[in-house]
Specification:
The complex is a heterodimer of chains A (226) and B (255). Chain A is an all-alpha fold. Chain A has helices at residues 6-10, 12-44, 49-64, 67-86, 95-120, 125-132, 137-167, 179-190, 193-225. Chain A has a single domain, classed as Orthogonal Bundle (MetI-like fold), CATH 1.10.3720. Chain A is 81% helix and 0% strand. In chain A, helix 2 (12-44) runs antiparallel to helix 8, helix 6 (125-132) runs antiparallel to helix 7 (137-167) and helix 8 (179-190) packs antiparallel against helix 9. Chain B has a single domain (3-242), classed as MetI-like (MetI-like fold, Orthogonal Bundle). Chain B has helices at residues 17-51, 55-69, 73-87, 90-103, 113-140, 144-152, 157-172, 174-187, 199-210, 213-242. Classes of the chains: A mainly alpha (226), B mainly alpha (255). The interface between A and B is medium-sized, with 31 and 38 residues.
Chain lengths: 226, 255
């Protein structure tokens, strides 16, 4: 077949808007996933069963169903729950909000496993020493355990971030126009789906390969320091 | 909540909605198992090659892993389904799009052989890159002395792999391989984007027809959990059976 690569230049604006949505989703899901993931990991390691049992159940549940299934779940549940919370009827929750909730929830489950391993890599004696100095739980966690844990976890967390960036393409299933969704739409309109999908694959590859390479280099530097 | 909805007659396929769920489960498992065969065999070859001293094959295997790992699975799905038939010679492309779909009449399916093939190929080749990394890590985790001892005994390098390294490495990587299979099992839901009506798609379809979204999603979620747990426990049992005494301390404990 003969290619017509000019279709990419013609759809520059649409593709860029799609990429912006992908990056937005990535940024919010990453931040939310790490914050909630940390709280979930702390709940899982808590000695209070009311915290550890639901947290463990949630993490295992999310990790045993497909990402797309989880997106469908939160896409369905978010408007229902929002209505219950705000008490307002017919309050429309946009697809973007639902997608963000879904991504934060799923990523927090994945991140909590990484963070839990990070917290457990810190010797028990450290929080005990912190308590002995008169710190409370939040002070010991916030100033002694977590800073060290995050440093140990950094390479794995960054690798997971690259995976998360790839996973944002899954919002395609609820019809959001992320980078892939925008290319798909432009491809259908112009009849040049082949060029657009090859372009999308190439862009994702360059970004993710570059990022993975950067993570590897960082990893090597950190391991020399230790 | 109305769980009796699953006993109602579904609008197509001549079965109840429960039948739709069963058909979805079957296609999820078929896609996963066929893709796993590709992933496991190709991944093993690539992983082994990456540990050998052969320069060019090693570079090819490394390039393969990097390419397949750094493109989102969904994009790869579209590349196989939409793009590949346009890039191959026209006759093969037409065969893929026109003749392959009618080659076999798939049972209980609302899609054709071509969707199924593309999904299996995509998932298999994608997961091969992940399996390759696990196989490589398993071989690299063995002490170098094992290779040297094998060579000193007069084994050739292929024999060292066949009789010394691989029997150990494959036992060690049973836990990560189990999670790779579960990854393929979960990732098989991306096949719904190219029209394969597997479990996730089927549950969404049931919710669209009956408006019983909660029930439909719960049923699919439970099926995913039951299969996941079955796989985990059978692999733990297998790992215990195959453990090398004194080397792998306990099931699930690694080394």
């Amino acid at each position: 077949m003969d290619f017509d690569w000019s279709v990419i230049a013609k759809n520059k604006a649409v593709l860029w808007d799609g990429m912006k949505l992908s990056l937005q989703l990535f940024g919010i899901a990453l931040a939310g996933g790490i914050v909630f993931g940390t709280l979930l990991a702390m709940a899982r390691l808590s000695r209070f069963k009311v915290l550890s049992i639901p947290a463990t159940g949630f993490v295992n549940l999310i990790r045993s169903i497909p990402f797309i299934m989880a997106i469908f779940w939160f896409y369905f549940l978010t408007p229902v729950l929002m209505q219950k919370l705000t008490g307002q009827q017919g309050e429309a929750v946009g697809p973007f909000t639902s997608a963000i909730v879904a991504f934060i929830m799923v990523e927090s489950a994945y991140y909590s496993e990484i963070i839990r391993a990070g917290i457990q890599s810190i010797p028990r004696g450290q929080p005990w020493a912190a308590y002995a100095l008169g710190m409370n739980y939040w002070q010991a966690m916030g100033t002694v355990v977590l800073p060290q844990a995050f440093r140990n976890m950094l390479p794995i967390m960054l690798t997971q971030a690259v995976i998360l960036f790839q996973d944002t393409s899954l919002v395609y299933v609820v019809g959001l126009k992320d980078f892939l969704g925008a290319a798909s739409k432009a491809g259908q309109l112009s009849g040049r789906i082949v060029e657009l999908y090859i372009f999308v694959a190439f862009v994702y590859f360059v970004i993710c390969f570059g990022a993975s390479w950067g993570v590897k280099k960082l990893n090597e530097r950190i391991s020399i320091v230790r | 909540m109305d769980w009796k909805v699953f006993l109602e007659q579904a609008p197509s396929g001549g079965m109840t909605y429960l039948g739709w769920l069963a058909s979805g489960t079957m296609w999820t498992l078929l896609v996963s198992i066929f893709a796993w065969v590709i992933a496991f065999s190709l991944g093993s070859v690539l992983g082994v090659v990456r540990t050998t001293p052969l320069k060019i094959p090693r570079a090819i295997a490394t390039a393969y892993v990097e390419v397949f790992r750094n493109i989102p699975l969904l994009v790869q799905m579209f590349l196989w389904y939409f793009v590949m038939p346009e890039l191959v010679p026209e006759r093969l492309g037409n065969w893929l799009k026109q003749d392959l779909p009618n080659l076999v009449d798939l049972p209980f399916a609302q899609f054709s052989m071509w969707e199924f093939t593309a999904a299996v190929l995509c998932l298999g080749l994608y997961t091969a890159s992940r399996v390759a990394e696990q196989v490589r890590a398993g071989i690299m985790s063995l002490p170098r002395g094992q290779t040297n001892a094998g060579l000193a005994m007069g084994y050739t390098l292929p024999q060292v792999y066949r009789y010394v390294l691989l029997p150990m490495a494959y036992r060690l990587i049973i836990p990560p391989m189990t999670s790779e299979f579960l990854t393929i099992f979960k990732n098989s839901s991306t096949a719904l984007t190219i029209g394969v009506i597997e479990l996730t798609a089927q549950s969404r379809q049931i919710s669209e027809y009956t408006f019983k979204t909660f029930e439909a999603f719960t049923a699919a979620t439970l099926i995913y959990i039951v299969i996941t747990l079955t796989v985990i426990y059978s692999m733990r049992w297998l790992e215990g059976r195959l453990a090398v005494p004194g080397y792998i301390s306990q099931a699930g404990g690694g080394h």
